[in-house]
Amino acid sequence: MNDNEIDLRPDVPAAGEVLRFRGQADKSELRAALQAAGVFRRTRLFGVAGALAIALLGVGLSADGYTVDFPFLAAAVAYGATIWLLTPRRTVSRTLKAAQAHGEMEYAVDDGGITVSCAGGEQGRVSWEELKRFHETPEVYVVVGRSGWKTCFFVLPKRLMPAPGQAELVGSLLGSRLGWA
């Protein structure tokens, strides 16, 4: 038996094993998680599409060819630059504020899925069938899935897994259940 409440001997059945850890993700871990999950890439893609749409509003067809209305181009550049530069920063700060509002969290990874309990008594449980993929960075594991209409986004910081080998154990469990992304 190790510190994780898991008996790793091959003759012991795997039912009911639980990996537990407690803590809160910090800003750099949340940034790494959002980046690994592709949130910034999709946000910037919407920014480029919006800027292109604004620029196309300023293009007109005339007898001499195309005419370009420069205020629309200036607005497109301003919109694109704003979305490109400021939205990732705002996303990280809003995610951090939401995480801090929930307080310290307790994570439990077991045979049924992942459970996250907040200090205020809220609890979220997602089964392995509802989880779709995970990403690993040097700082965190990011697990993404869908539960009904809701998107599930779990950030499992590796620094909160103090027992020796616990981070590798969580990684291999996620890899076996969800496949490597």
Characterise the protein shown here:
This protein is of the alpha+beta class and 181 residues long. Helix content is 41%, strand content 29%. The protein contains four helices and nine strands. The longest helix is centred in the middle third of the chain and has 33 residues, at 70-102. The two termini are 31 Å apart.
What does the secondary structure layout of this molecule look like, with pairings?
Blueprint lengths: L17 E6 L3 H10 L2 H19 L1 E4 L2 E4 L1 H33 L2 E6 L2 E6 L4 E5 L3 E6 L3 E8 L2 E8 L8 H13 L3
Antiparallel strand pairs: 1-4, 2-3, 4-5, 5-6, 7-8, 8-9
Helix pairs in contact: 1-3, 2-3
* Spatial ordering of strands, largest sheet: 1-4-5-6
Low-confidence runs: 1-14
Task: Give the termini distance in whole angstroms.
Answer: 31 Å
The residue-averaged pLDDT reads 84
Number of helices: 4
Helix content: 40-55%
Query: Rg, please?
Result: 22 Å
Class inferred from helices and paired strands: alpha+beta
Task: Please describe the biggest sheet, giving its number of strands, its sense, and whether it closes into a barrel.
Answer: 4 strands, antiparallel
Protein traits:
181 residues, four-stranded antiparallel sheet, 4 helices, 9 strands, disordered N terminus
Short synopsis of the structure:
By secondary structure, the chain is of the alpha+beta class. The protein is 41% helix and 29% strand. α1 crosses α3 and α2 (39-57) packs antiparallel against α3.
